[in-house]
Amino acid sequence: MDKNLKGDLPDDDTGTELARELGLGAAMSIGIGTMVCAGIFVLPGIAAAKAGPVVVLAFALCGLVAVLIAFCMSELATGMPLSGGGYLFIVRAFGPMMGTVMGWCLWLSLIFASAFYMIGFGYYVGDVLSISHVWLALIMTGLLTGLNFIGAKETGGTQNVIVAGLLIALTVFFVVAVSEVDVENLRPLIPPEIGISGFLVVTPVLFVTFMGFAEIAAVSEEIKNPHRNLPIAVVGSVVVVTVVYCLVEFCVVGLLRWDDPNMATETILMELARMLMGKTGYYLILLGGIFATVSSANASIMAASRISFAMGRDRLMPDWFNTIHPRFRTPYRSIFVTGGLTMVLLVILGSHLELIAEVGAFLSLLLYAFISLACMVMRHAELDWYKPSFKTPLYPAVPILGLLGCLFVMGITSRPTILIGLGLIAGTLIWYVLFLREHTQLVGVSNDLWEKKVIRPLVAKAEEYAAARRDAFPVILLPLSNPATEEALLRVGTALAKARRARLHLAHVVSLPRQTPL
Question: Of 129, 365, 489, 516, which has the most beta carbons under 10 Å away?
Fold first, then answer.
């Protein structure tokens, strides 16, 4: 069983092992580059127009939930540093059915996120070129798919350059903007005409900006020295990005009132930079926005392809996905399918930015809720092969709070998004029942844990209780042989049993001839 649970990779000469080429910088770049995009360059104006100044706290709440999950994911990732990320952790903890559902949720959430980032790219470039944002998104998606096909090392190096560029642009914007903030624009924190409902509406949408840290775990099989670099990259990227989000969003709502007609736009940062620094500021943020959206989609396509690769390896997707390119050492079929589905989504929902973001966030929140549970299951399973080098602090408070935080944000998601999410989940369950249930040999740790920690102790307690009950009361044996005296003996025996709180056992005596064979 341990072999199935551990999910060891085949030997390198089989052509199914990924090369470890991503250092700490590249790993953090995957997380930071993905998260910074939508949170800073695409959503701040739209979110501020719907929630008011309290949108800063909405970012902070999402960041807090993400930090809690990041701790749990770091423990799981250092215990299982293999490609697959959240999918891998859940399938090992809960078995193939939940692994299939959560693997598809993670894969689809990254595809939705990739489409969201590419739409943001289309809006930024389209503002200059006056070309349809959908066409621009489709072209860039094709280019990024080809880049991921070439290899993770090249992808990681590109990611470092992109992240450096967007952080420089944001730093310049913040330094110039913070001195121009009008405190009056921040009052009241919760506008009475909106109330707390605005905060509740934008929080699920904003959570899509915190999906990047999960993508670090998804490529953990390609990270050098994962026992050290994984927890630093996962937790560190969430903390850094949360601080950046709150500071930049503070400048946005401080420079322009939330109810200004110009606030509700995907390119609000460019407009504010133009107001502060003229054309130089406009093009600086334009360049940063392009870097951010491209880096996000790049990392999402990269991570999503590793999810389908890992599922193919575990026979929860067709084995066709489980193929490494002989030259570039990348899961090229998974990459092409991921890029193709992203393009299909762009064509169908290219004009529904917030819906795409919210569906991606809903699916990822469901996954993160199970990540919290998986952390607790694996901690109590006491497996020989699971020895994480990083342990979640303040256990079990952190995974429990992370679980509750995910459920809360999911609960305030809009009804259409919930219906779409549940429909996708139902589809994955049907896929598992029809095509996979009879073919997979994986067994979840939770099966043994449930039997060892719950079933066996309950059975032992029941047997102990029954034995104690037997020993606690005396036994009166009442022999019966003569029908004429049975009724009288029963009355006497019953009275004695009640008086002594005893159990009454009846023995019917029958005389047999000596020649009767026994």
Answer: 365
